[in-house]
Amino acid sequence: MQHFLDIHTTDAGELRDIIDGARHMKTAREGRPRGAADDEQPLAGRMVALIFEKPSTRTRTSFDVGVRQMGGETMVLSGADMQLGHGETIADTARVMSRYVDLIMIRTFDESVLQEMAEYADVPVINGLTDRTHPCQIMADVMTYEEHRGPIRGKKVVWAGDGNNVCSSFLHAAGQFGFDMTFTGPAQLDPEDEFVGLARKAGSTITIERDAFKAVEGADLVVTDTWVSMHDSQSSKERRHNMLRPYQVNAELMKHAKDDALFMHCLPAHREEEVTSPVMDGPHSVVFDEAENRLHAQKAIMRWCLGV
Ligand code: CP
Ligand code: NVA
To answer: Where would you find the membrane-spanning parts of this chain (predicted)?
Structure first.
């Protein structure tokens, strides 16, 4: 069994195998109703716990459906309703849950919760987002890019806006999948130095460019995310919006990217804030393919974790 905690801590060859597996499983069930079982049932007899300490639409639904398609069962738990939110230690929660379920996916705040869960669980633990990273999302994003445009290796990805948890996992993927990244946003919201350093060490060119229009020149992929993440205080909203407004992804900005550039957003999007509707709904956008591929990528991640 193996945990899926982050992209930079997973072997690059295994990440590639996961993407290939996801593509294979997606093709194998083309045209079937969403609720239909896969031909292969690798999770038959397995129980998966999905723990959420933050809201979720995509992660919750895609994991739940994915487990069922592979023959397993799920229980969706809200962190607030568990003893975890009322004083029981994470280590004890991990030990107890390991006696009931075969796999744990957790969305939490501080990444130390995820790490402690993984340390004390006897079953695989999957990172469903922390304040610092969102690896399942970026596995789906790499899969989506490659479905539309072929290998992502050597491509130029531009991240516009807040250097947040999703941006961090993109930097991890840059190092592991061999693409370059340009960050464009205000200096106060730069991505973490540690993750920029890791990507550079792995051979990726990582550029910081304050001018959004210059940044997107030659971009193969433009990505953004909300200006206020779930872990950010609502009182910072106005300040963040003021800082981030020059980095909105709109039709004018997309004109400066390559003609065939793709646009991605992990969703939920705040239309007319970080991205305008003409871009979200326009010819560059693959945001709903990204959302769909969460399902396929996570199915492959769960199989990898369980070795089935
Ligand atoms: N992109 C993503 O993780 O969406 P949810 O917050 O809806 O799960
Ligand atoms: N950066 C966002 C991603 C949501 C999927 C957040 O953490 O709220």
So the answer is: none
